[in-house]
Amino acid sequence: MKNPFRFIILGLSLSAVTISCNIFYSSVRNIPVFFSSPEKVENKISDPVRKNVRLSALWIGHSTVLIQMDDKVIITDPLLTETAGELARRIIEPGMDIDNIPVCDIILISHSHFDHLSLGSLEILETKSSGKALIFPEDAENYIPQYNFKMIRMKNDRGYRKNITGETKTVDGVKVTSVFAQHWGGRYGIDGYIWGDNAFTGYIIEYNGLCVYFAGDTGYHENKFKQLGEKFKIDLALIPIGPCADCNQCGTYNHVFPPCAYNIFRDINAKYMIPIHYGTLMLADAHPIEPLGEFQKIIEKENAQDIIFPLKIGEQKIIYELE
């Protein structure tokens, strides 16, 4: 009998080559970007936290969203630097000036890839949010230096092999649950496959009767997102729509494109959605803004203009206000 491990090793090798080629291709695509300055964001918001707001979201760019839930401020996958791991440079600057980013009660990291775990951005946040919670999935600690944050590691069922939830922890009154995502871990692409790194997750954030879902990066699964919708009553969903090659297709195993981003929104039965993970970095065949054009077609087809809110970078959407 032939050695069965030969096929496993071959598969891992092919995956590694594919990922390495993608990283190389992304780097080549970014060469022209490094010779130009990021586009400026006009009329940036200087005071994003408001006393009369119960739930709001300000899109800083890529997967970085500043969320207000009553008196709590949460930031997702902060990317505040001009580059992501020196491999990709922003085509548009962050939607907030660093000096105007408020103290963040919780910093969420969905996974350890360069465009989501930005060490330079964590250093920036550390100046104002020292001692606050930095929450990340199990295995991501291998890539995070020691900061002056409250370091909180979340289990994720070894990459959500069986369950749709990892664990729940209450942090400063906010209930955070790690939930299903279909992605891969590692820092450099190849390592996540070779070493079996499962540093990826989505999150459910609950506070004062409010519920926000942050998907991180994920592919589509027909059943598991429906299970999330049955388990949680989600007010606002932050779901990626890019990067994409053929943007009218569902996506890949690891990333959803616009059609399946909408499927996730439908499956989890959220009240409102803000699309993220596009328009900022040159990471795929399509231009970074192209996913939005395809997603706008879906919004119009589904007559969902009142429940899905594509934002400009730097724009803030107030979901609920105090009466």
Structural overview:
- The protein has 323 residues and is an alpha/beta fold.
- The chain has one domain: Ribonuclease Z/Hydroxyacylglutathione hydrolase-like (Metallo-beta-lactamase, Chain A, 4-Layer Sandwich).
- 24% of the residues lie in helices and 24% in strands.
- The chain contains 7 helices and 15 strands.
- The chain has a 7-stranded mixed beta sheet with strand order 8-7-6-3-2-1-15, with no helix packed on it. The chain has a 6-stranded mixed beta sheet with strand order 9-10-11-12-13-14, covered by helices on one side.
- β12 (210-214), α5 and β13 (236-240) form a beta-alpha-beta unit.
- α5 runs parallel beside α6.
- The longest helix has 25 residues, at 5-29.
